[in-house]
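Data card: per-record layout.
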Amino acid sequence: MNLALPVKNGPQMSKDPDWWRGAVIYQIYPRSYQDSNGDGIGDLAGIIHRLPYVASLGVDAIWISPFYKSPMEDFGYDVSDYRDVDPMFGTLGDFDALIEQAHALNIRVMIDLVLSHTSSQHQWFQESRSSRDNAKADWYVWADAMLDGTPPNNWLSIFGGSAWAWDTDRRQYYLHNFLASQPDLNFHSMEVQQELLDVARFWLERGVDGFRLDTINFYVHDKDLKSNPALPEDQRNSTIAPEVNPYNFQDHLYDKNQPENLDFLRRLRAVMDEYPDTAAVGEVGDAQRGLEIIGEYTAGDDLMHMCYAFDFLSPDPLDGQKAAKVLTDFEETAADGWSCWAFSNHDVSRHASRWSLDTASNKTMTALILSLRGSVCLYQGEELGLTEAYVPFEELQDPYGKQFWPKYKGRDGCRTPMAWTADSPNGGFSDTKPWLPVALEHLGRSAAAQENDGTSMLNFYRDAIKFRKAHPVLAKGDLEIIEADEHKISFLRRDGAGAAMFCAFNLSDAPQTVTLPDGDWDTITHSDFSANVTGKTVELPAHQAYFAQPV
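The structure for this 551-residue chain is written out next.
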């Protein structure tokens, strides 16, 4: 293990324990961001090289997907050593340098912490499977077979098939909510919990500003291993492979979302509170009760700072009526909580393709998400308007896609390398063949091609983030829906200091009309948008937004 000392005397971020509330967080998928050593795989040094670009966006923080030691069967989400960097990404020294450089550019660093499961190659699992009475025998979820040799219950893996795999050493089944090579840790063991808290402390000591917590609601399982009931067909609304994955056939009452999860989250928050100005955002993976869980997990000040669900990651087109319902449901179920909104990430098709957006409609959607109460996660490349890439089966890497091809093509289409320039087949990402092909259609949208175009998506994102920061009421103020239908949405933002802003969005291909609230209002100029205002009536052309503040 590389035991390079953590950064202690490097640049320090300004003290602000509330920095995360309303922050704009930029997700970096390290394999696909920038290759610095010519092996076709992005790495930490490549991220360091591109940090000035990230800073130019105006974001508050970056979230880096896993870079720990791993056999890479699920590309880093199968951890074999929580306290070291996989050599393909660099070293702990590289990570310390990344922290130092990011802080010098006023960018906070959050890292992906994958606590619910490890790789089957982790030394903990190797010891646990060796016998039924070793020191780590209960560190994973083991169970005897039924009398007929079948698994102990009906739980299913997200990646297909039973969530139980037979181990010939222990002659028992072990639980894996994902790949069979990703055994689930047993959070009913206090030793496991303490070890994972120590892992969090290890990275906090190195100077990270917080965590993105993978599958935060999967940590604890029902101790009695009760089978899940069937889910009625009309309620099967998963965002990932809903038509082909039998995982969506169950109501997951017992394999996740257990009340004991809150006890562990309180312990984790207590550790984080020892390190001022840190924050955590949890991924809530539940299609039926995601907002409800966010409300539970972010209530008060002793649980998680914020969470995100998959409501805006749905394949269904987002219209004003649906947006209003999500926002209203959130206020009703999580009034004391805090959400982190996202349209895209490394697990779903890019929203430019998912919702068939052109440049104008994409800009309006961007203005919408950056006007919401809560924090915002942006996924690398969405600021360029990148579309979902087609990856042929012979070049597919994602085990999820390989399992359900061709009905579901997996997640590789949103994970292809960033397009930095248009003058090479690899888009400036690497000097050699990348681990996934660079989409030809992305080259024309490269960062270099958009840099000096004042009307580009890239520069619109910069302007929109700047606009959000110039008007803090957008990030932290209350939100009141004024009008909403399938074509448009308008809402009023207010905060306790007396600031207010009216926001309206035409999400359709035809002109729409909205009405200003009572009182006198002045139009606020926002990049690329226009509207006609007559008295209280605002006429919005297709795919336009409008903003106003009280006189």
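Known properties of this structure: The radius of gyration is 23 Å. Residues 190-205 form the longest helix (16 residues).

See the next section for split statistics.
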